[in-house]
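Entry: Hydroxymethylbilane synthase
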Amino acid sequence: MDKVIRIGTRESQLALWQAHQVNNHLIAQGYRTALVPIKSEGDIDLVTPLYEIGVQGIFTKSLDLALLNNRIDIAVHSLKDVPTQLPQGIQQAAVLERGPVKDLLVYKTNPDFLQQPGYVAAIATSSVRRKAQWLRKYPQHQIFNLRGNVNTRLKKLADEPWDGAIFAAAGLERINVRPETSIELDWMLPAPAQGAVVAVCRENDTFCLEACAAFNHAPTALATQIERAFLRTLMGGCTTPISAFAYIENNTVHFEGELCSLDGSKFFQTSRKAGIDDANNIGYDAAQEILAQGGAEVVAEIRNAK
């Protein structure tokens, strides 16, 4: 195979780990490849909270432009960063088998403060979803903005007088930097598509599409499609506290979804299950249920608050 497949990736350690997974799959099939690191807008501005930037695809836009401009042939993204509507001219080529989906609390000394009524803990995160869910459980705590790649955020936590910070388990574990001072937040529902990696290519690029089809993980692709349909129907993005998780067990799709107000004081939850062949509309139907229960007012409040 003479053609070299150029794989676009962000420059962070985690992004490179993701790109190498795609690279390894392609090499195993006999394809020639080259990694092309590209800096994203989200990597340049590490100060402004994501909800204030308000740009859809802040971590994917630069790679998508490189793809459309034929500087690369495949772009590799964390699927939770990808807008639910792909840019015109780009198609999903493969979703890799999902990794850990849960969030973690990395604490400074010990997590005993979580059991202390009235204690005002300082918790860091840039995610409006994590902030809303945390405040729902611990309304007295203070939330601080934390931006940057995984290593930058861990260093920031060490330097600041915070009690802890929230991270995705997948991000820490994939590059082997999960501290011993961390606990899984089993009560926190993850972001739609958290823990999943996607490869995209140009529409009508049958060569790359066929190359990626061999490592597309169908169960992960279906689960994340359902979660992202839930997100899209609620018209959510990085500025809306929306959580969703779908998994397949014994040919049955199980789904949980949630919408919170920004301060966590209002929330709507739903769960449902269906056979694999009947599961395509689960995410849409679950979102419609939440909107009908009063979620539409919360979505409107969040939009008007921007």
